[in-house]
Design goal:
The chain has 392 residues and is mostly helical. The chain is built from 14 helices and no strands.
Length: 392
């Protein structure tokens, strides 16, 4: 997709993300870009108003997402209810408890049902064997879901690590020579991180989350053009910026002839080639890990395994009162409720962790926080770059 003209049009004036660059006292900052019209990213991204708007947008988007807890606090973690994802197994649990209560009431009030011919307590040994098989199946189910959850978290760590390395390389090697292209790489990496989050949640790209980074027009164009595949467009823009910064120098036949001052302003061809290879490697990894999370989201555990596990899990729990009512009496009702909560809770936990991208699930990945951290890291890099450029 190539719509450079429409995107570049949104870069002029002081409408950069609807933020007027200002210092801590709110005084407007003058642009120091080469054409004198586009504010530098090191002014707009850390601007107080932009920071406030991004924080508010991310806080609203992440409402209900993971809360921090003290893993040493047994009281809080033992008696919590909301964070157990009870909604994932509430219906089968209530069904098991109701069946248990109804069967106990019938057993107590219908004398015919207490006849020895209906006594199933001799099947208790078989129940122990079934429980062992179910235990192995549940452990496998939960472990696979946990691996998927951790793979997604690792992928986000890779995005942050590779993106920081890419932007740092551009600042160190291209910042003085190609400031506009360097700004483009940094701002589109911010858009890449937010775009991955929005793509995985199937939601529109939020301009407020990129305040001081992209213009409203750029965000609106991405929402209109990309159908939630914002990260691919951002990756393409980063590649274009790297290409402009490196290949245009390589094609300048006069870069390394004549003027010594001009020679110092250009990178050596070998240096340019190394940077191009490194940048492409970082960008390829960014796209690959985003694709890995897409694969995890689109590919669940085969239905044959889930259906088989859930069928025998329900059969096991629902038949429990019929086997043990003669031994436990009314105790079969709370016993069934506790055992059902334990076994169905494991299945519910696996369901919760299998696809950890929802915006309203307590146990899902805090992708808004990941994006905030990425933007904060780049803001710090830009501040260092600005201080060095000003001789601070």
């Amino acid at each position: 997709v190539s719509h450079d003209a429409g995107f570049d049009a949104g870069r002029s004036g002081n409408g950069f993300g609807h933020v007027v660059p200002s210092d801590a006292h709110g005084t407007e900052l003058k642009s120091d870009a080469r054409d004198g019209t586009v504010p530098r990213l090191w002014h707009t991204l850390p601007g107080p108003d932009a920071v406030r708007r991004r924080a508010a947008a991310f806080a609203f988007s992440s409402n209900g997402l993971p809360r921090k807890y003290d893993y040493r606090d047994w009281t809080a973690t033992t008696f919590m209810l909301r964070d157990r994802a009870i909604g994932n197994f509430a219906y089968p649990w209530l069904l098991c408890v109701c069946v248990s209560a109804v069967w106990w009431a019938l057993y107590e009030h219908v004398e015919h049902l207490r006849h020895p011919r209906y006594d199933l307590s001799e099947f208790d040994r078989m129940y122990a064997l079934i429980f062992t098989a179910l235990g192995f199946m549940l452990v496998f189910r939960l472990s696979r879901a946990a691996i998927r959850f951790w793979d997604c978290r690792t992928a986000w760590g890779t995005i942050a690590m590779r993106g920081r390395a890419l932007c740092d390389d551009c600042i160190v090697n291209l910042g003085a020579r190609r400031p506009e292209e360097t700004d483009d790489v940094i701002k589109w990496f911010c858009a890449f991180a937010v775009g991955v989050k929005c793509h995985l949640r199937v939601e529109a790209l939020c301009a407020e989350q990129l305040a001081g980074i992209l213009t409203q027009k750029e965000v609106d164009s991405m929402n209109a053009l990309m159908d939630c595949r914002f990260h691919l467009f951002a990756a393409n823009k980063m590649r274009r910026a790297v290409k402009r910064a490196l290949l245009e120098e390589a094609n300048d036949e006069t870069a390394f002839s004549g003027d010594e001052d001009k020679k110092r302003r250009f990178l050596h061809p070998q240096h340019s080639a190394t940077l191009m290879h490194s940048a492409r490697g970082h960008l390829d990894v960014l796209v690959d890990v985003a694709g890995a999370m897409e694969r995890i989201k689109a590919t669940r555990l085969p239905i044959v395994y889930v259906a088989h596990l859930r069928t025998f899990l329900l059969v096991y729990i629902l038949s429990m009162p019929f086997v043990y009512v003669s031994l436990w009496g009314i105790g079969v009702v709370p016993a069934t409720a506790i055992i059902a909560f334990a076994l169905l809770g494991i299945e519910g936990a696996a369901t919760e962790c299998e696809n950890p991208f929802s915006a309203k699930r307590t146990n899902h990945l805090g992708m808004d926080g990941f994006c905030e951290n990425v933007i904060a890291d780049l803001g710090a890099m830009l501040a260092w770059w600005r201080d060095e450029s000003s001789g601070g």
